[in-house]
Amino acid sequence: MSAPAKDLTPLVRPRSIALVGATPLESNKLGSWALGNLLKHDVSAELYLVNPRYDSLEGRPCYPDLVSLPEPPELVLILVPAAAAIDVLRQAEALGSRAAILFSSGFGEGDRAGSPLDLELKGFLSETPMAVCGPNTNGIINCIDRVAAGFPPYAMADELPAGNLGVVSQSGALVSSLVQHLLGNGLGLTVGFAVGNGIDLTVGDYVRYLATDDRTEQIVVYAEGLHDADRFFAAADEARDAGKPVHVMKAGRSPEGADAARSHIGALVGDYDAFAARCHRHGILMAHDLAELAALPLARGRWGRRIGVLSSSGAMAGILADSARENGFEVPPLGPTSHSALAECMTLGEPRNPLDLTGQSVVDHDLLPAALEAMGDDPGLDALVHGMLIGPEIIIDKQMDALVAQANRGTPVAVFSAPGWHPVDYPKLADAGIPVFNSPDRLFRCLAAWENRRDSKQPSEEPHTWPDETLDNLLADIAAPACAPAEYPEDQSAAVKLVGDGLNHKTDLGLVELNVKPGDIAAVADRLEARRRELGLSDAVVVAQPMAGPGIELVVGTRLDPEAGPCVVVGLGGVLAELVDDVAIAPAPLNIVEAHALLDATRAGALLDGYRGHPPYDRDAAAEVLVRLGYIAARHHTEAEINPLIVHTSGVTAVDVLIGGH
């Protein structure tokens, strides 16, 4: 049974704060940075300074320890070395303090994980009722109430970047760069949480707090490795149910990135694609970079896949059309009505999509409004993207007026700024809810994310269950029967092979022979037995099974990911599995609708439907196997692999089945 969630209110809105390790502002140390920010932003909480080396600091009394304070502080900021930090925590707990921020590093980072000091801190935090942020954090910044309990660079500015976004970051150093991107988009923060090592409070705890915070409207998360993945996704569901979108950027798309994240926070980092699939199921949008993470909160309205592209530059229109296609959007031809309307107002160029408004738009200020209206009324287009160039202020101003007018008619409109400007540089567009991007790919990735979130609600159909939940029953009707070669009863060709623990790539190792005639089975079995002894495979055995009929070969299986949890994986199988590298992954369990969607996320989906004149194959049977495997993963918490699973025109055959390593 998990411990009850701790109250984070004293971390965010404390009535009193003790700063242990405070130093003079001119010392330029961590203790001075934290003190300077609290004073600069005129913190309303009662502030107590603690350092036995000073009688006073910045005109305030300075106390030798927490016990000497006039009252127990509600929040304790700990800026002393790691060796002394736990004693301060114990003093704070004994006094009745409700929360602490432990800035000290030297506990669980890198080779310090599992050190005596690290284990002592973990033991204390597992039992204390206090809510403790850190260690190895740069603090918590409440921008609305001006409680700058930390020292990220954005908190050192003259004004805190107040807004309606809650930010949670596992990197304290990165968060100020993220804030700069948010400010460029005209966005600001309610609270910024730097998680640090997250021993006591994790990403999920901070997301849950923001989900219930009335002033927070959206939540932005930078994650590296989540050892509280279930708690995080449950908190994200709470936020979604409260109408608060959650946006995530996660390190670890590459093996090198995963290693960097792992060394930074000492957490187990899982498969990126598996994590992304689980995010999609929970309606969480994922970003590729900081600028994209800061742009995702700009979403308004409904976006579709059919895009109308226009610009005063033919080159820009072409660039945007290329990016649209590369990111999975269509740039369809104009309908006849829109084509005719554009032909009437264009004296140069050709009415088409993508549309080059040519130099005519520089002198004819009515052209862009007419073009936007004609394309906006086209039933074959879902949204419009305009490429904004550098030009005289009067021209740019009139272009913005035209874009705002079209958006007010109900057409989703996005803008690419060729000069690389930000939304704050186009206040008219920002006020109208028109997102502005300085990268075409980022624009279309965000549009794709917004559209995918609208489509990511789980189907109403529940995952299937079986009365008999044993593994043998769940795999019944799909696994090809196998027996000892001497007992092979079939009057038909056989596949003879070695099976056993860890026997992958059997074809490459010469451990499989296909289309063996019944009379040759004994001789083939003897050769494979000799091969077994040669390789020292003491646990392997030779088996024979009927040759399966023709069909599409898939690799299907389950994975237990440390962050995404139980997952189902599918892709083209057999000897092509690693060569093609075309797999899709989804959280388990699956229902039949999700299983079909998983198949369609790979090239196998098109092959199963009957590619280039081939007959359709039994994709329903393949989807049923995925559902069964998802149930195995979720119910039995075990890994499994079938390679290949041959999908016939009717039915399927599981040729090689590996369950839990056996």
Distance between the termini: 32 Å
Number of strands: 28
**Structural classification:** alpha/beta
Mean pLDDT: 89
- Gross geometry: flat
Biggest sheet architecture:
7 strands, mixed
- The percent of residues in helical segments reads 25-40%
| Strand line-up in the sheet with most strands | 3-4-2-1-5-6-7
Strand portion, in percent?
Answer: 15-25%
Number of helices: 23
**Low-pLDDT residue intervals, each spanning 5 or more residues:** 260-269
Rg calculated over all Cα atoms: 31 Å
Describe this protein with a few key phrases.
28 strands, seven-stranded mixed sheet, 662 residues, alpha/beta
Q: What report would you give on this structure?
A:
There is one protein chain. By secondary structure, the chain is of the alpha/beta class. It is 35% helix and 21% strand. It contains 23 helices and 28 strands. A 7-stranded mixed beta sheet has the order 3-4-2-1-5-6-7, with helices on both faces. It has a 7-stranded mixed beta sheet with strand order 9-8-11-10-12-13-14, with helices on both faces. β6, α4 (116-125) and β7 form a beta-alpha-beta unit. α3 (82-95) runs parallel beside α4 (116-125). The protein is flat. Mean pLDDT is 89; it is low at 260-269.
